[in-house]
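REVIEWER CHECKLIST
Item 1: Sequence provided? yes
Item 2: Single chain? yes
Item 3: Sequence as submitted:
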Amino acid sequence: MRLRHIEIFQAIRQTGSVSGAAQLLHVSQPAVTKVLQHAELQLGFPLFLRVRGKLQATPEALELEREVDKVSESLQGVRRLAQSLRREPGHSLRIGATPALALSLLPPAISEWTRRYPELVCELSSAHSRELVQNLLMREIDVALTLQRPDHPGLAAQALAQGVLVALAPRDYWPAAARGTPLALMELAGAPLIGLSSADPLSARLDSYLEAVQPAPRVSIAVQTYSLARAMVESGAGLAVIDPFTALGASTASTEIRPLTPPLPITLYAVTRTSEPPPHTLGSLLDIFSHRAQEQLNRLLQQA
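Item 4: Structure as written out by the authors:
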């Protein structure tokens, strides 16, 4: 199938008719019919059958649709990349961050940065670490904030701050005398723990860290983001081992934070592409991120 065949095929699937496809693509109905007939002639089987006035895909077309969708996604990626390459350099700075950092670190840091550079446009987005890597490679963002160092030759990671994972529990879960003190790893034995999805890049590290705990923590709920883990703790569903930036956003009226011992280190990275010079204001922004992150980590030490 040619690209034009695919375009017509998807338009008919979306609208259910030749006339609807023509309106969607801003072409004439005869043009749509001609391309459809040409596609079916090349394929050797019909793509649609008319049923009660609507065009319905044949079984062969439904099988074909899976691969067609993949081609369509690739074309959309090409269009996004082309749009990014046309972007005027230096006009805006596009920043992506993991959900945990987007909620805790981005707001105060970006507020300070935009006061310094009021003439520049700032675009913010949130995604998981793997998606941020793809966004960078597709030039859809200029810098990514993540707690996972990417393993890709086209990307460079700069450490901005270092902290440790912490335990977050419903208030009064621990005795009053233990509040603020380091939590020994073995104290998690048999505890109702909110687990991390295996898709989380830190999940394997955490699982390895907890291997020595006997009996193992009871994990009946697994989540994909630290923010959701925090919300589950706030609801009283159990404990969570999460990053300090997310933990600090929890309600002090309903939760308590304790650093773990032995500590499980965590690093905040700023990731950029190695193939091009960074935007001229990026250095200033990373200084702000580093300063704000350290402020939050210091606040955690004061609470502990």
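Item 5: Key structural point noted by reviewer: The longest strand covers residues 155-164.
Item 6: Recommendation: ____
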